[in-house]
Amino acid sequence: MSDLILQSLYSGLLAGGSYALIALGLALVFGTMKIINLAHGDLVLLAAYIAYVVETKLNANPMVAIPLALVIVCITAVIVYFLVSRIEKDRELNSLILTYGLGIILTNAMLLIWAADIHSTSSAWLQEALVVGPLFSMRSELISFVVSMVLMGALWWWLSKSWYGRAVRAVSSNRDASKLMGVNPKRTELISFVVAGVLASFAGVAIYSYGVIQPALGGSLTVKAFIITVLAGIGSIPGVLIGAVLLGIVEALTVTLYSSALQELTGMVLFLLVLYVLPNGLFGAKGRRG
Fold first, then answer.
1. How many CA atoms within 13 Å lie on the side-chain side of 86?
2. Main-chain phi, psi angles of 129, to 5 degrees
3. Which helix (H) or strand (E) holds 212?
4. Which pLDDT tens digit goes with each residue over 128-142?
5. Tens digit of pLDDT for each residue in 131-185?
6. Per residue in 110-129, pLDDT tens?
């Protein structure tokens, strides 16, 4: 039983890396524009389907699809931004409705193009088992986790050291005051959407490399990203990783000890429990000014 628990913790850790990539894009957009992009999960799923097309049509490793996914997903993210940025009244509520509608459009577009069939990679190299002591995983899971850590480190460096990264933090903290410092909020928001698209592209290809995809998955990914963002604390991007790993481990333990049918339910229970005990999330600030 101890080996089984240890394996569940390991699997949850690896899954949490991919969850973090999805949630970081959502959290970044929320930080700069104060909106929840309900189409974000569908952007991730779009990247996964691009990986599927590259594998089936070109007979190539799904990882080769990353450059194409980056272009298509980022262009789609920019389109979403320009539609959202035109909202001037009740921006938070109206943008929520708009992105929900865009998510439905993307879901149905993928349904029309690729039907409702379930797809997964056929790459033997990605599915090959890697054994680390008593623990095992698919090669794709381990690669996805390592890539996730590298991208999160790069995002942390970008937000901390680069001019545009500091501009994102400035707009997130106080949009009006950032203008006085020479920051263009609209350009910064656009950059946030593009960076979120980059993260979504890598996350989507990763999901296809070790899991199964179908058109309805986009909504589920958005919900997971939102749960993780709230667990971390709205505006706490560094806490997203811990929140994602926590969700991944809870889901893995649920599948191992109880039933896979309860996997999604335990995430919602954890979400509601944290909201009840810590309304600002595990790492959220008690109060924000500006």
1. 7
2. -80, 140
3. strand 212-213
4. 888 877 888 889 999
5. 877 888 889 999 999 999 999 989 988 988 888 888 888 888 787 788 878 888 8
6. 999 998 889 999 888 888 88
Ramachandran region, residue 123 (left: φ > 0; alpha: ψ -120 to 50; beta: rest): beta
213 three-class SS: strand
| Residue that the structure tokens 């991944």 belong to | 248
Are 17 and 47 in contact by the 8 Å Cβ rule? The answer is no
Contact residues for 195 (Cβ-Cβ < 8 A; gap 6+)? 25, 28, 155, 158
Contact 246, 16 (CB under 8 A): yes
Burial annotation 156-177 (CB, 10 A radius, 16+ → b, else e): eebbeeeeebbbbbbbbeebee
195, 187 contact by CB (below 8 A):
no
Alpha carbons 223 and 251: distance in angstroms, whole number: 14
CA distance 201 to 74: 8
Residue 213, by phi and psi: left (phi above 0), alpha (psi -120 to 50) or beta? beta
- DSSP string across 103-153: HHHHHHHHHHHHTT--EE---HHHH-EEEETTEEEEHHHHHHHHHHHHHHH
CA atoms of 16 and 64, how far apart (whole Å): 23
Beta bridge partners, 119, equal 213
Question: CA-based Rg of the chain, rounded to a whole angstrom?
Answer: 19
Alpha helices in the chain (DSSP H): 2-33, 40-58, 66-85, 91-114, 124-127, 139-161, 163-173, 175-180, 185-210, 217-232, 238-257, 263-277
Q: Which of 57, 58, 54, 56 is nearest to 67 (CA)?
A: 54
